[in-house]
Amino acid sequence: MASALKIGYLVPMIFAIVAVLGALVFQVASMYVPAAGAVEGEGTGPSLRHAWNYVRRQWGRVVLHWLIVTVAVGVISTVFYGLAAFAIHLPELIFEVSDDDLAVKAAWSQFEGIQSLYRGLAYGLGMILPVTLFSTLGMLSYVSLRHPAGAQLNPSSMDDTNGIALGARGTRSPNESTHPSDTRPAPPDASPPLSDISDDSDEQPLVKE
Known about the structure:
With about 210 residues, this protein is mainly α. It has helices at about 1-40, 45-55, 60-95, 100-110, 110-125, 130-145, 155-170. α3 runs antiparallel to α5 and α3 packs antiparallel against α6 (about 130-145). The termini are far apart.
């Protein structure tokens, strides 16, 4: 009896867990596979591989993004579903169809096809924004996984120039002393000979007549 109860309890539980995991996998795949196809510009198979490579390396960020997307899309979907349901019942509220007026109900029931079309249009327009929000957040999440914030940026030309300047500043001439106690005289070719230095003090300025 106890084993039967365990089986009767565990089997539905296993099916429920599998269903929930399947829904989660489907949601994550719906978030990242179309985004990978749009970003990478490839087909379904390569997009699926790209999405899986990024997801399996950053599980923590994926879970955080999934929670944010689920809450945001869930709230927006609830609000717009309520607005769509209100739009469907709006004609009855405007025309004030009472339950006792059978003639009006019979006449109203003749337009079931138009009413079905109206319901589909209302629900379809109501779900446009949640679906758009879901795809947009999925794209942003994929791009953030593809280019993490901690990635090292490529050095710019200014960095290369600074490196050259630092390298030039760090080089020393062979005649430069590196020790403060070194008082060796300068080499003879450090200053020009005195004979090459001309004294221009006795020169007279040119006077133009």
